[in-house]
# Entry
Amino acid sequence: MKLIFATSNRSKISEIRARIDGKLEITDLAENGINEDIPEPFFTFEENAMHKARYVYNKLGISCFADDSGLEVAALNGEPGVFSARYAQKNDFSGSNTELVLHRLGQLANPSRAARFVTVIALILNGKEHFFRGSVEGNIIEAPKGNSGFGYDPIFVPEGWSETFAEVDQKKKIAISHRSRAMNNLVDFLTLDGKL
Ligand code: ITT
# Structure
């Protein structure tokens, strides 16, 4: 069986390929002749992810899935959320996305530092739509630490840890990450459905 992962991100593709161990043929957008960036214009992870999956399904008629992720900071009413990739740009802030989160928290008196990373995967399997979610709870620290990972990793310490996601080996992050948890739910579903 063939399944398209609607992403151009090579590391996401290799991560899922490693998990399903060749039992299912997974290809990415470029391998299916789609080179444009599919927009993510909505206000929920679910809508953005399903929009990407429907775009591919309507174009090619092949079962596919797409994901959308972000960081939700409790004291910032869930921001940056679906705007995680372009938080600073959207707010005309001259620093980085990470700096804007720290700046906003710094403007509040004694804020909660609680935050979570979220991933939603939208799957269209033989025309039927499904969602899978994964999240990891943690806290935002006062100043960035660590050089590995990407995005908000240097300011996020998962619950029960003393290091940020950017201070540990990537294998350690992947073992508990939001994206892995959503992927696990997808893989469990495909297994139960007899596809794996
Ligand atoms: P594609 O849509 O092309 O797959 P993207 O960069 O938009 O890539 P996501 O939708 O998964 O990736 O994530 C949106 C943003 O959320 C991302 O640019 C980061 O700023 C942040 N983010 C998501 N997952 C993260 C993680 O594991 N560590 C740190 N930041 C993350």
